[in-house]
Amino acid sequence: MPLDKVIDFSGVPVFQRDALILTDVSFTIEKGEFVYIIGRTGSGKSSLLKTLYAELPVKSGSAHVAGYDLRKLRSREVPYLRRKLGIVFQDFQLLTDRNVNENLLFVMKATGWKDKRKMESRMEDVLEKVGLGTKGFKMPYQLSQGEQQRVGVARALVNDPDIVLADEPTGNLDPESSRGIMNLLFDIRKSGRAVIMATHDYSLFRDFKARTLKCEKGKMEALKYEIN
Ligand SMILES: Nc1ncnc2c1ncn2[C@@H]1O[C@H](COP(=O)(O)OP(=O)(O)OP(=O)(O)O)[C@@H](O)[C@H]1O
Ligand SMILES: [Mg+2]
Question: Could you give all domains of the chain from N- to C-terminal order, each with its CATH number?
Answer without folding.
Answer: 1-84+197-223 (3.40.50.300)
